[in-house]
Structure formats: C-alpha cells, structure tokens
Request: fold
Amino acid sequence: MSPPDLPPVRVGQAVDAHAFATDARPLRLAGVTVPGAPGLVGHSDGDVVLHAVADALLGACALGDLGSVFGSDDPAYAGADSAVFVAEALARVAEAGYVLGNVDATVVAQRPRLVAHLPALRARLAALLEADPGRVSVTATSTDGLGFTGRAEGIACTAVVAVLARSGQ
Reply:
C-alpha cells in the first residue's frame, strides 16, 4: 500500500515569550543582536523570534514542539544559538516532504522600539530559513501598557508558517 498523498499546504502557528534578564546578556531577536536593551532569560539565547518560528515549523508538520525536540533541561542547549533550532526544524520539515512557503512573525514588546531593527531581523531570518526575503515577514507591536510585555517585563513573539508539499511527494 502506498502512502497517502501529502496535503499541498500545511500551516503551523506558535507563541514564545521570555522575561528580561537582569544580567548583561545581549538581546537576540531573529538571530540579530539588538543593542541597548537587556537580553531575555532562557535556557538557550532566549531568542523569542527563532523559538516561535522553529516551533511553528514543527507544528505545521505535526512533528512535536520545541520543548519535546530540544528539551529546555538538556545541557547541550544551555546558552545555544537558537539558529540551531531553526536549522533542525527545517531539516525535519524537509524529511516530512515539505518546504517553507512563507513565515509571518510578530514581536510583541513595549521596549525596545524595534522599527529601526526590523529590516535586519527580516533579512537574518530569511537567511536562516534559506528563503527569499519576500517570503518572510517580521513586524513589531506593543500592547499599549497591557500585560507583561506592556509593563516592559519581557518580550513575546507569534509566528505563523505555511509549508508546501515538495512536488513528486
């Protein structure tokens, strides 16, 4: 019996959030160091954009989630560059027979103001995803003082990813 045809499009969505750190670690978003802001607490580098995107990639193909694949208590990932999570998620998506269609990530932060950094975040995320920048969107918003992001206690990110079945699958 042959395997069923893959659905032509699958969609994954994810949310990640981290509190601001009190030590001197840098703020990393989409693989970019954002100057002048505290970093985020996390077992790895705390990059909420890369965490949300990797999680959405895994979710699109029902491949688990970031915690089940990488484990937040695994010493191998202590302080890790979150680009490794994106690379592994992309590899697993490819093994499942899919390629990236597009990604839309929204950073939720009261501070720092990110508008000047968005082109760099988008370019770096596109490079990590090996995707045309036209398939990658990174935007930012605040919550106008509401919630932990509004109180400037941390940063969150939402991500939606579409993956496409490779032809011939």
Observations:
- The beta strands are 9-19, 26-29, 32-38, 98-108, 136-141, 154-165.
- The CA atoms of residues 21 and 41 lie 5 Å apart.
